[in-house]
Design a protein that fits this description.
Layout: H1 10-20, H2 22-47, E1 50-53, E2 59-62, H3 70-75, H4 81-90, E3 102-107, H5 109-113, H6 117-125, H7 127-135, E4 138-140, E5 153-155, E6 161-167, E7 170-173, E8 176-177, E9 183-185, E10 188-193
Parallel strand pairs: 3-10
Antiparallel strand pairs: 1-2, 3-4, 5-6, 6-7, 7-8, 9-10
Helix pairs in contact: 4-7
Length: about 200
């Protein structure tokens, strides 16, 4: 009886080869994955920026967290998402990055949510109105907490005057109540308000 050796099927050869070196293949793939992940982390950390969803669902970029200017300091706060979104939409965030000093009166997220939803959407959809709103809350120059007891009004970047009153309820800016003692940044200071200065 003659035994005739049949040539191996190509598919069988590949399958056998793969099965014999399965561990080596897995190790190489794992190494490539780790290398790729490491590269991504390095690039991401060097970029100095991270993304955060805006109030309107638009992705905005927050700058380097080690920077202590007004914009970066405000960006780290969790209660000022609406105001930060308004800054980025209007381009006024650039104002808070330069070397000039400013005092910023920031309505909390709760203050924005107290506005009628339709009206709030209308404001954020109208860049001119939104720009005016943001400028109503920015004052050129740095004012400490004690300064508010010495002045009766201050002029906002919008050109409008903000009346300051000390009452039994606390310090009022027009009708908005001061809710914090202030937080300093390298180019100014900001305070929290309980309502939005719309006019």
């Amino acid at each position: 009886m003659i035994n005739i050796k049949r040539p191996q099927n190509k598919t069988e050869s590949v399958t056998k080869l793969v099965s014999e070196h399965l561990f080596e293949i897995a190790a190489v793939l794992f190494a490539v994955l780790i290398l790729g992940l490491g590269t991504y982390i390095i690039v991401k950390s060097r970029s100095g920026a991270r993304t955060t969803g805006s109030v309107a669902g638009v992705q905005t970029f927050r700058a380097d967290e080690t920077n202590t200017d007004l914009l970066n300091t405000i960006a780290k706060e969790s209660n000022y998402k609406y105001f930060y979104d308004a800054l980025t939409r209007t381009g006024l965030y650039q104002l808070l990055q330069n070397d000039s000093e400013y005092t910023v009166l920031i309505p909390s997220d709760s203050a924005f949510k107290a506005i009628n939803e339709v009206e709030l959407n209308n404001i954020f959809s109208d860049n001119n109105r939104l720009t005016q709103l943001v400028k109503n809350h920015i004052v050129r120059g740095k004012l400490d907490r004690l300064d508010f007891d010495k002045v009766e009004f201050m002029k906002a970047e919008s050109g409008k005057s903000i009346t300051i009153k000390s009452t039994n309820l606390g310090t009022l800016f027009n009708t908005a109540k001061l809710m914090s003692s202030g937080k300093e940044a390298s180019n100014g200071v900001y305070y929290e308000l309980d309502s939005v200065l719309l006019n």
